[in-house]
Automatic annotation (TrEMBL):
<protein>
    <recommendedName>
        <fullName>Macroglobulin domain-containing protein</fullName>
    </recommendedName>
</protein>
Length: 798
């Protein structure tokens, strides 16, 4: 009887567990997409791609670049951030060049003059926004560059004696389970992440041969493996150079889940989940693409197997993440799936000839349209035309492959354009290997389930550059300081003045607009805490990806090409230095922040007095000089109440806030004009009872002595846009000029805009340097369709 009751209790408990799982299962299918959406709604992503004019440079040349910033979910031009940060880093991640570049509707462009002080080597160009600094540095855009300084003795590169090779194995779905068959991908790379072809043997613990394998493409491949033990199998890998690597596979679990994903001819993606778990009743599959949940399905296990068939039409283009949960709401399998994008911009160009002589006109007809469309579509492109030789080759990577593939995967991706080249079985297999090797990221679902909303230290610069400061006591950050107000000024004829409040962490932020080039900035506080000082924080990111640069070396066969490029650089800098230093003056509003003043006084129009007090008393009726507490104060007249304001106005000299004593002690003979604002003026959280602004002749605060606690330092603003120099040889006289033209970069245009029919015309002229040239076009339209195109032509001496 007791045995019967025990069995009955066990049976009823089992039914209750099944009922509970069923109820929880329905909730799980609804809850996870809702929680996932809520989590991602607060995590807006940006992606950035940079098109450089080429990848190889000599010191003394200009490096040109075009920035494409897109919404991380839609891949459309993003108008969130207005500032991009672009850097060139050396092999130790030390910046050698940095710039802040203005963005407009997700696009911007700039240049770097590579100084003759730079050392020869491989470098990394990277770009990001202030908002992107909240995420991993692996999310920044990066690309390798080579720079050679031919004006310095090129020492022989240190022999790279390190023979570090790495082998890694990646079970599909994440784990191996004893007695369950899994696809296992692998990759063998050198120390710089480049794939190495190999062959291998998988051995048991008893050194029995279990199977043989070999790489397929870029050092990657896969094999099917059914572990018969929880002890890890051992791989013996042989490289092409004869070197052998020993590497264990991940250990197999006694219980767990495995996943297999494959495409069906019926247009579906088949996902098979096999389980050895005693609690496995159902499997819950969720697929999301670019932060949007696309599929949420449940299947019961039948003899330990659950099968899902996902209509490919339910999955958007690009990389999708497929995650499987068990009944306990635990993620147990995950992998990536790639659907080749149809959102492609078809770019084409044709020239007026296939071969040109020196100093001849090249005319390009550019066409853009959506893939498979019959009519053109307007798009914005960047164009680079340069010579290809033993130093500079054609870069096959593009904005399309970067956005849709490279930026979605972890680690270094070799030749990403290869995966977009065609649709044959070879490409599909290589793509699947790539996704298995680079796609296992173990998304932190606990953050979603526990409603842990991400916190962000950096805000998007949706208006202008933000200068961040920290109040410090000695070298320690000061929080809850008695200092509450801070002001930043950029002295000059174009007056820039900003105010801000200090937060409880001792930080203060100034949203600075239209500040270009290098100038002095002046930062002041209300000085209530005399022991604190202000430190301006580095606006550039101080975290770095783990992608290593390859060792620098130059083949002897490149010496002639290097000499030609070096001579061309020196000739251009000698004869056309003025043309290379021409910048576009930005179209900015020079009106003071307070708008039109109530009155303006040109001091030269009046009798010159020797003290500022006399100037104000004699012919500035809106400003009175009054004595309170033994000190002189300025008061501005309030016409609304026909009396002077009770408190001091905002007093500025060349845009720098000064107090009454400093102003009244200043030499009026150095002042050009005075502007007075008699209205009460509200600027952010500050209210000023009138404004009195003095401007010197040169806007440079001549001989002004500020409080010793004021911070005055040089600060680089937004980069001025340099004009690309391209000589014109329209006439015989121009073509017969005796000035040498040794350019290897014939043309750079960051803003080729095709019209409503998708057409644009571009023209430029060849130089005196013969050889094979390539024209590279990259870009996108407002809908996020991206594409690229290149073609070659020859320049001869004819």
């Amino acid at each position: 009887m007791k045995l019967f009751n025990h069995k009955r209790f066990t049976f009823l408990s089992f039914l209750l567990i099944l009922l509970l799982f069923k109820t929880q299962g329905q909730e799980l299918l609804t809850a996870i997409p809702v929680q996932f959406k809520a989590y991602n709604n607060s995590t807006h992503l940006e992606k950035m791609y940079v098109h450089t004019d080429k990848n190889f440079y000599v010191a003394g040349e200009l490096l040109w670049f075009k920035i494409y910033n897109v919404d991380g979910a839609l891949y459309q031009p993003a108008d969130l951030s207005k500032i991009a940060y672009v850097e060139i880093l050396d092999k130790d991640n030390k910046p050698v060049m940095q710039a802040k570049v203005q963005l407009s509707r997700g696009k911007g462009n700039g240049s770097f003059f590579l100084p003759v002080s730079i050392n020869s080597g491989n470098y990394k160009l990277r770009a990001y926004t202030n908002w992107m600094k909240n995420f991993s540095a692996s999310c920044y855009f990066e690309k390798p560059l080579t720079i050679v300084n031919t004006l310095k003795t090129l020492s022989a590169p240190i022999a790279d004696t390190a023979t570090n090779y790495q082998a890694a194995f990646f079970p599909e779905g994440g784990n191996l389970v004893k007695d369950l068959s899994s696809k296992v991908a692998f990759q063998v790379t050198d120390r710089y992440g480049k794939g190495i072809d190999c062959k291998g043997v998988l051995l048991s613990q008893n050194n029995d041969t279990l199977l043989r394998f070999q790489s397929f493409k870029f050092g990657m491949g896969h094999f099917m493996f059914t572990p018969n033990s929880t002890q890890p199998a051992k791989a013996v890998i042989t490289l092409a150079n004869g070197r052998t690597i020993l590497q264990n596979l991940p250990a197999a679990y006694e219980q767990g889940y495995v996943m297999q994903v494959g495409e069906e001819t019926t247009g579906t993606v088949k996902v098979t989940i096999t389980s050895k778990s005693p609690i496995a009743q159902s499997a819950y599959l969720f697929a999301y693409t670019k932060q949007v949940m696309q599929v949420a399905e449940r299947q019961n296990f039948n003899n330990g197997v659950a099968t899902f068939s996902i209509d490919k039409n339910k999955l958007p283009d690009g990389v999708s993440t497929i995650t499987v949960f068990n009944d306990l709401q635990q993620p147990v399998c995950e992998r990536l799936y790639f659907k080749k994008p149809q959102q492609v911009l078809s770019v084409a160009a044709s020239s007026n000839a296939a071969q040109y002589g020196n100093r001849k006109r090249v005319a390009l007809s550019v066409n853009t349209q959506h893939a498979n469309a019959t009519t053109g579509s307007p798009a914005n492109l960047s164009l680079a035309v340069y010579r290809i030789d033993s130093l500079q080759t054609i870069d096959p990577n593009s904005v399309l492959s970067y956005l849709w593939l490279t930026s979605e995967l972890a680690g270094n991706i070799e030749s990403p354009a290869y995966y977009f080249s065609t649709d044959n079985d070879e490409i599909k297999e290589a793509t699947d290997n790539l996704l298995l090797v680079h796609g296992w990221r173990k998304f932190d679902w606990d953050r979603v389930f526990n409603d842990k909303q991400p916190t962000f230290e950096y805000v998007p610069e949706f208006d202008g550059h933000i200068i961040s400061c920290q109040l410090k006591h000695n070298e320690t950050a000061a929080s809850n300081t008695s200092i509450t107000d801070a002001w930043l000024s950029i002295p000059g004829i174009q007056m820039q003045f900003y105010n801000s409040k200090v937060n409880d962490k001792g930080k203060v932020y100034f949203d600075v607009r239209d500040y270009y080039g290098q100038n002095e900035i002046v930062i002041q506080t209300d000085n209530l805490d005399t022991t604190a000082h202000v430190e301006v924080l580095n606006p550039f990111s101080e975290k770095y990806s783990d992608v290593s640069l390859p060792a620098f070396s130059l083949a002897t066969a490149t010496q002639n090409a290097l000499n030609e490029q070096s001579i061309g650089m020196q000739v251009l800098n000698t004869y056309e230095a003025g043309q290379l230093s021409r910048f576009t003056i930005p179209n900015i509003d020079t009106t003071p922040f307070y708008g039109k003043p109530s009155n303006v006084y040109k001091l030269d129009d009046y009798v010159r007095f020797t003290t500022m007090e006399e100037v104000l008393r004699e012919y500035v009726p809106e400003v009175a000089v009054r004595r309170f507490g033994g000190q002189l104060h300025l008061k501005v007249f309030n016409y609304d109440v026909h009396d002077f304001y009770p408190s001091d106005p905002l007093i500025l000299l060349d845009g720098v806030k000064v107090d009454n004593n400093i102003l009244l002690g200043y030499d009026p003979l150095k002042v050009n004009k005075l502007e007075v604002v008699t209205n009460e003026y509200v600027k952010g959280e500050f209210i000023y009872l009138g404004i009195v602004n003095f401007t010197t002749y040169h806007g440079d605060m001549e001989s002004l002595k500020l409080d010793s606690r004021a911070v005055i330092l040089d600060y680089e603003g937004l980069q001025l846009k340099r004009n690309f120099y391209s000589p014109v040889y329209k006439t015989d006289q121009q073509a017969s000029s005796r000035l040498p033209d040794f350019r290897n970069l014939l043309y750079w245009e960051p803003d080729v805009q095709t019209d409503a029919s998708g057409k644009a015309n571009v023209e430029f002229y060849t130089s005196d340097v013969k050889g094979k040239y390539v024209a590279v076009l990259q870009g996108m339209d407002n809908a996020g369709y991206a594409g690229s195109y290149y073609f070659t032509f020859d320049v001869t001496n004819k």
